[in-house]
Design goal:
Elements lengths: L1 E8 L6 H14 L4 E8 L6 H9 L5 E5 L5 H14 L5 E4 L11 H9 L4 E5 L6 E3 L3 H18 L13 E4 L9 H6 L8 H10 L5 E5 L1 E3 L13 H22 L1 H26 L4 H24 L8 H14 L1 H18 L4 H25 L5
Parallel strand pairs: 1-2, 1-4, 2-3, 5-8, 6-9
Antiparallel strand pairs: 4-7, 5-7
Helix pairs in contact: 5-8, 8-9, 9-10, 9-13, 10-12, 11-13, 12-13
Length: about 375
């Protein structure tokens, strides 16, 4: 089995020599694998590439490709392509150069590949996995990207750790089925968002994922790429991560996209009747309750004929029955708007009704409605 370790680098002169020695030692200790090390350097100004070139003179199994700095994702895609096409890898294992992920765990990843898994992720979120030396900011940053955006917004749930570079991927029949060129030309991935997007792309090809628990340690040498010096690229990567999360959600679940459009139409109807009922001086609870019911009628109709068309409800009796059930399940949304709308108006004033409405809908009503619609009204038949 030919295994290519891919090490992306930018200004890693303090680590690259040590990493190359560690991988050479690992290869000697595991002769059952045909190891090759591929360094993908983004033209580091600190001389990282030269250290690799010097090492290559005494180790023919170390390779180097270079290119302009366009982001971690761009570098990894180049490395994946080179390893698969030029080096004829059976398995690729990308890893960071700073020893945050211990390369000694490579045999553990390969063991699971040999057991039949196609993607084996070194995970901080299973078993005894975890992190060491992280600041509160780093922990919060990781939670927002890994849990909120990757898991909930994008819906990538094949694994629990989405953002680590350290993983083993089978090439034949798996990675070679992923259109890596399109990730550069169509999706236009550049930054660290590639880490979780590639998991999504692989999930379209295979369901054989496995997570091996590891401990991620903060680097002891070299500079982190999350800091003031790289703030612009870091901010760009964050915005790209959010964009990728939304693209995945829309691609994976067009139903959610339709649900959002129907919800927006319902919001417009809700806002219009909120204004109208307010003009005719109805009681505050009736203003909020009546306008919400108008939106409920709109949502039921449009969701039935469009969002959930494949599970559309037909016939006057069934439609009436489901509409009554829909109203019952929407009672929570109705109650949410009546309670929070009335309280908000009492606290802020009637002139803030139209401002309170979208806040209540987006923050409370939409999550509740989507859960009830998919789990109760248009529940998938087993």
């Amino acid at each position: 089995m030919k295994v290519v370790n891919i090490i992306p680098t930018y200004n890693e002169k303090e680590n690259i020599g040590l990493m190359l020695k560690a991988l050479t030692k690992l290869a000697q200790a595991n002769p059952q694998y045909d190891f090759v090390t591929l360094v993908v350097d983004d033209e580091s100004p600190d001389g990282t590439a030269q250290i690799v070139k010097d090492y290559m003179k005494k180790d023919a199994l170390t390779k180097l490709i270079t290119g302009p700095k366009k982001g971690l994702g761009h570098a990894l895609i180049r490395g994946y392509q080179y390893a698969a096409k030029e080096l004829q890898a059976d398995v690729i294992i990308p890893n960071d150069c700073d020893f945050s992920f211990d390369p000694e765990r490579i045999p553990d990843l390969l063991k699971k590949i040999n057991e039949g898994y196609d993607v084996v992720v070194a995970s901080r979120h299973v078993g005894k996995g975890g992190t060491e030396g992280w600041s509160l900011f780093r922990k919060l940053n990781h939670w927002v990207s890994n849990v909120f955006f990757a898991t909930y917004v994008a819906g990538v749930k094949e694994v629990k750790d989405h953002n680590g570079n350290f993983k083993a991927i089978r090439v034949k029949g798996v990675l070679d089925q992923v259109p890596l060129d399109e990730l550069l030309t169509k999706v236009k991935i550049r930054g660290f968002g590639f880490q979780f997007y590639i998991l999504y792309a692989l999930s379209k090809v295979t369901k054989k994922f496995y997570e091996v628990p590891v401990v991620f340690k903060f680097r002891v040498r070299g500079e982190t790429k999350i800091g003031k010096k790289y703030f612009k690229s870091y901010l760009r990567d964050i915005l790209e991560y959010i964009k990728l999360s939304i693209l995945i959600r829309l691609d994976r679940n067009q139903q959610f996209f339709k649900f959002g459009i129907v919800g927006f139409i319902g919001y417009l109807i809700n806002a219009s009747f909120l204004w109208f009922f307010g003009k005719i001086s109805l009681p505050e609870w009736l203003i909020w309750g009546g306008s919400t019911e108008m939106a409920i009628i709109s949502n039921f109709t449009l969701n039935n004929i469009w969002t959930f068309k494949k599970k559309q409800i037909f016939g006057p009796t069934q439609i009436l029955k489901k509409f009554l059930q829909f109203n019952l399940t929407s009672a929570g949304a109705l109650l949410i708007q009546i309670v929070f709308g009335t309280l908000g108006t009492m606290f802020f004033g009637k002139e803030y009704r139209q401002l309170l409405l979208p806040i209540i809908i987006v923050g409370l009503v939409l999550p509740y409605n989507y859960f009830m619609y998919t789990r109760v009204i248009w529940k998938r038949k087993k």
